[in-house]
Amino acid sequence: MASPFPLHLMLISFSLFSIFTLLINPSIGSSLAEKHRIKLQNLSFKDGSRPICSPQRPRKEKGELLLELKHHGRCSKPTLNWHEEMQKLLFSDTSRVQTLQALVRTETLETGSLSETRITLVSGIKLNSLNYIVTIGIGNEEKVVLVDTGSDLTWVQCKPCKSCYEQQDAIFDPSLSPTYNPISCNSSECLDYENTLGNFHSCPLNQTTCAYLVTYGDGSYTRGSLGHEKLSLGVDQDDWFKGFVFGCGLDNHGLFGKASGLIGLGRSPISLISQTTSKFGGVFSYCLPSPISSDSSGWLSFGQGAIGTANSSEATAYTSLLSKPGISTFYFCNLTGISIGGVLIEVNYSSNGQVGSLIDSGTVISRLFPSVYKAVKAEFLKQTFGLPSAPKFSILDTCFNLSGYEEVSVPTLRFHFEGGAEINVDESGILYVAERDNSQVCLALASLGSEEEYMILGNFQQQNVRVVYDTKGDRLGFASQVCSEM
Questions:
Q1: pLDDT digits (tens, 9 = 90+) for 231-260
Q2: Which residues are named in the active-site annotation (predicted)?
Q3: Which member of 148, 218, 239, 295 is catalytic?
Q4: pLDDT tens across 334-350, in order?
Q5: Active site annotation includes 437
Q6: Does residue 295 carry a catalytic annotation?
């Protein structure tokens, strides 16, 4: 028996019903998008139940030496003013980004059997920073230091200090170390490092040792003398490096928290990676723990074992490390697109002539071209339609008032790279809690000032991802992994 309604009228009726349904319930339209269901209490930074300010001692597993990595932050006291503290952290992050942009435009530096070493990375949230710390040995002393892929020199504060900030560990005294050997300011070695570090006055008046000055993106700096010392990355002598060139910081100022100094994992000849190439082959990796808990740990690994994926939830996928003539320190790769809830937004480099984006462990919030950020923001707002808005917070201008929510559904965030590699951003790297009562919760991405600047992949979006740097193979790898389970 034939239907009493013509087919075309039935189709029109169904279409009108569908449109009406979407109008009264817009969330249905985005229900097919890829989503995370996030409990907001899991996004708020938590003070540890007791001050665990130092990473644990290195340990070996399956032939690898593990250095524990922690987030560097509020070690000695709780945060009294959350809003002010978060603004301060983002302000210093902006200063670092501005300096990185200047450095990549002006830098003009000249450009056996392999072992495996892994050490643990921990969150630095207890030492007033959103960056990461490890424990290393300098001479016969253990020091907690910041980790930075955007700089080269490894240094610690030293006696006699002219101007030193407060640190957790005792200040290193080179006069008490039998393995310390200063570098003469008139030596050819000093001249070589003068060129590498960009110092032009390495032999100041009445000084016999090789002087250095290194400034960082947030305005921090270290000034002192270069010397040779034993570097220990593990408990075994196989993991010691005699004659390691480092900086003895005598005048240090800035946002180093209570860390004793910093290890530079950049690409120039003075970096830790370059100085240990004969043993580790220029390969290292890290897995950054979430900064939410100050007790969470990740790890830093050196050598071919850093490429392994035994504890990863997916195989490591690689993209090319790009070479930039005249730029020796930084790591560049080709970011080709960003997906919001499965919707791809392509990156177009042709408009500014730049090729490649920086990946940096010291920058917190990823920075995008204004055109890319505008498209990402529009898609994110489209897929979070109905969430109440909130004022911008510092560099973050896509914010929501979630004070009445216990959990929220947000689109997934994925970075795409040349060659097919991807970073599936962990749910802890999508939203940034600016206010503890959740009245300001923002998308953890920011826009650059212009299309001519370099995009930067920051550490907030690298949480719970194994990132592999193969400097000899000129490749960069990614694999999702729960860092705290290593």
A1: 998 767 777 899 999 999 999 998 788 889
A2: 148, 360
A3: 148
A4: 999 999 999 999 998 87
A5: no
A6: no
